[in-house]
Write a structure and sequence with these properties.
Elements lengths: L10 H11 L6 E5 L5 H8 L3 E6 L2 H13 L5 E5 L10
Helix pairs in contact: 1-2
Amino acid sequence: MISLEVIFVDIEADIPILIDRLSKTTGLILDVGTGRGAMAENLAKKGYHVVTVEYSEERIKETRQDFEGRGIENVLFIHADAQALPFLS
């Protein structure tokens, strides 16, 4: 069974609050509208596997290159529209 909790946050200010609210075990996180990847980066560094969804292909390319250059590996980047996620039907 999959447990789903939706939390809307001000990314930069609320990253520590969000991580504290998550269970203390690692798991899979969906980051919709990842942008520069601040949330994904912090979650990945805490041991979570992160699936990011971003509409801008250029932003995905830049963020992926940045993450690869810094050795952040447990993040999957997906180009998609948040209103039509490819894996939820």
